[in-house]
Amino acid sequence: MRFDRITYDPNRMNGQPCIRNLRITVRRVLEVVALYPDRQALLVEYPELEDEDIAQSLSYAAALVDDNVINLRHVG
Predict the structure, then answer these.
(1) Confidence check: pLDDT of 76 > 80
(2) Residue ranges per domain, the chain?
(3) Sorting pLDDT into bands at 50, 70 and 90, what band is 74?
(4) Pairing between strand 18-19 and 6-7?
(5) Whole-prediction pTM value?
(6) What is the largest CA-CA distance in the chain?
(7) Is 35 helix (H, G, I), strand (E, B) or coil?
(8) Of 4, 10, 20, 66, whose CB is crowded by the most CB atoms within 10 A?
(9) Confidence band for 70, pLDDT divided at 50, 70 and 90
(10) Are the CB atoms for 45 and 32 separated by under 8 Å?
(11) How many CA atoms lie within 13 A of 71 on its CB side?
């Protein structure tokens, strides 16, 4: 997958991956997606974000996650 909306600049946001050279990190996008399950509310709060920015942030995060299976103990 090509992440053409995710940019890196060592002089911006401590070199963290950002959206289109904005001061919005991919991490922040992931956090607000979790906080705002209603996409329209998210876009009202962050009008500079576009749907493709959110989609690429999610895909980028998924690409970084290892596919190792972790055996979690069931509590209950």
Answers:
(1) no
(2) 6-64
(3) low
(4) antiparallel
(5) 0.82
(6) 48
(7) helix
(8) 20
(9) low
(10) yes
(11) 0
Question: Using one digit for the tens of pLDDT, what is the confidence trace for 27-65?
Answer: 999 999 999 989 899 999 999 999 999 999 999 999 888
CA triple 46-19-32, angle to 5 deg = 40
Give 65's contacts (C-beta < 8 A, 6+ positions apart): none
Q: How far apart are CA 56 and CA 61, in angstroms?
A: 8
* Fold classified for 6-64: Arc Repressor Mutant, subunit A (1.10.10)
* Confidence band for 5, pLDDT divided at 50, 70 and 90: very high
Where are any strands of DSSP class E within the chain?
A: 6-7, 18-19
Cα torsion 61, 66, 68, 72 to 10°: value is -40
